[in-house]
């Protein structure tokens, strides 16, 4: 199966998107199609052996819309993925300005006399009725012309048998315009035949102002709606803007600044302090602290040394390093994140299906209601003007747009907000389903725990801890066991010098031994101590207590002297206990599943507060356990990181992968936690609940608005309350409904997790932009610019003045003798900016350090 996205043009409301979706869904070879009105996009899954992209495009065109295969922002290297939306916004702005310029005087002329406003004498009196009417008609023409798209699209879709929102506007304003033109003829007839009463009657009911104000208000609503829509794409825009435009590459032994698109995999890229890392790579020389907050949401800079992975789009806070490029273009982590967010916002949540079904029949029903209402009022003896007002009001007040925007706006903002918090949500369905999760199953190793052994306790028999660590580290260095790494790390932290070991041997099931400085040394379990007749005394109880706590006790001896115990364990992550407590407070059951033995599992469960434990589970059995938990009709989420978690992640209603986990686990999951922090699983569920609540509010408003507005516009309450809706007020209400739905969705931009980190640190989210460097309350960066050509104090003053004009420069010190300028920065600033500034001042830059 192939999956491809298309950009769709010509859609104006949910009836349009429903028609495209229905039409493409009928084609042979189409498995799934989702049309997104907000993004004007279509995601299609199809069998490439039956149908191709060109045929899909042709089918969309036959339906009456335009389509082109979508090119992602990352592929285009475009820093503004919403350019099309900005162009549309500019077009709407022009249309709105022209409409207002002509509608305001038209409204004043037609209605001014009702408010006692002065009008020129040639507009007053029945004898001037033609001047009065024809002037209004002339003012209406530019408004109709600039907004002719409503008529073009509206009548086209009507004749094709699939009317949309533009059809309602076109029929409503068109009817008012046609009636006004007929009124001009009646006025002419009245004046020509001396029947002033007829001329006066039609002079007072022209409806040109209604047609103009309807078009202007609808365009105003569209303009505000487009502005709000643009803001829903902020998350993707900020992600794309993280990528720098240039990179410093080492070629032929020389540093070259090239466009990031020219960087090749395998090349060496140089990253200096304050630079944004251009692509993914592995550090081969140097070290640094890298600010990864924009990608992972982690606010603290991460230390990077030789062999560590560097992610494109993150910022080198300090230091200098060279890295070998491992991924460029669409293969970088940043591009992958952008693609995931883009696909999620293009997908459709199950809750949107109801709105889609209604939208498909909404416009024809509204046209029918308007026609029936008009006929009924005429049959009841009302005037043509009265009945026409009713019909136009029903057409104009009806708003299928609010129905179509209710879900995608909230989904787009919600997934973007998740990305800002380091939570990648792969689909709208996952975002919706997460709100109803009642059970969260947690893998132990790497999810609740750190996933690597750590030394937790050192107990020395004679108080000589350095000797114990020396023997332990020297022996374990010869071992390939995972626990050995933990002891070696601890020894390095303690400044232990490792000794040479000879005659090293492995004792199966017990441990290892070797000769150090002429003495036999032993490392292993209690069985090894017993087999070598080494007395451990009361330390056996201490070892048992460590084992009961889920730790692995290792016994060490030199000769026949027992040196002590080192306990090693896969320690619980700092936030795991709090995350489980937060889930419980949300009414969610937690279950730990692990292949470890029951004793270790129970010890970890006791530490973090999990009572439901499934231990000793084989990898293939995890999926079966998820299936059993789902039998009670409960939604189950699975959080894991390993290859053996992939089937369980796929089986769960919502699979949540730890970002530091394996690629296969991440591919199998619906949600990816970039920070490997369980508290982010809590945030994901809270975000899901907030998003769904927002969607429900939007749908309620859209249904309520139409359920109340259409009957009022049809005159249902006219007989009882004398309530009748003016078409201009109906147009304003229609515009307001769409804007209000989008504005309500934008409230999700202010979402914050409802928990606080233990220790008083707030869970405030990290905004996805090139962040300020933070260390304590303020961190200053320094760069030294080596300059050639400065020969006097005037030169140094000129350089100082030029550099001080840069926004992120806080202080400049120029050393004339040293031919250098030291620049203090409040924010990261690229070397190319400093070089250009100095060279524009008339001097040559030799180097930036």
Q: What would your notes on this structure say?
A:
With 849 residues, this protein is α+β, with helices and mostly antiparallel strands. The strands form 6 sheets. Strands 5, 6, 7, 8, 9, 10 and 11 form a 7-stranded antiparallel beta sheet that branches. Residues 73-82 and 759-780 have low confidence and may be disordered.
**Residue-averaged pLDDT, rounded?**
80
Class derived from helix and strand content: alpha+beta
Main sheet record: 7 strands, antiparallel
**Oligomer kind:** single chain
Rg over CA atoms:
36 Å
| Cα-to-Cα separation, first versus last residue | 52 Å
Name the overall outline: elongated
In short:
The protein is α+β, with helices and mostly antiparallel strands and 849 residues long.
Ordered list of secondary-structure elements with their pairings:
Layout lengths: L1 E8 L4 H12 L4 E7 L4 E6 L6 H11 L2 E4 L3 H4 L6 H29 L17 H18 L1 H12 L5 H28 L3 H8 L4 H25 L1 H8 L4 E6 L2 E6 L8 E4 L8 E12 L1 H4 L5 E3 L4 E2 L4 E13 L5 H14 L5 H28 L4 H14 L2 H21 L2 E3 L2 H6 L3 E7 H5 L5 E7 L4 H12 L5 H12 L8 E6 L3 E6 L2 E6 L1 H6 L7 H10 L3 E7 L2 E9 L6 H10 L3 E5 L4 H11 L3 E3 L4 H11 L5 E6 L5 H6 L2 E5 L4 H6 L2 E3 L5 H35 L4 H4 L5 H20 L9 E2 L3 E2 L18 E8 L4 H12 L4 E7 L4 E6 L5 H10 L3 E5 L1
Parallel strand pairs: 13-20, 13-22, 20-21, 22-23, 23-24
Antiparallel strand pairs: 1-3, 1-4, 2-3, 5-6, 5-7, 7-11, 8-9, 8-10, 8-11, 12-24, 14-19, 15-16, 16-17, 17-18, 18-19, 25-26, 27-29, 27-30, 28-29
Give the key terms.
849 residues; alpha+beta; seven-stranded antiparallel β-sheet; 31 helices; single chain
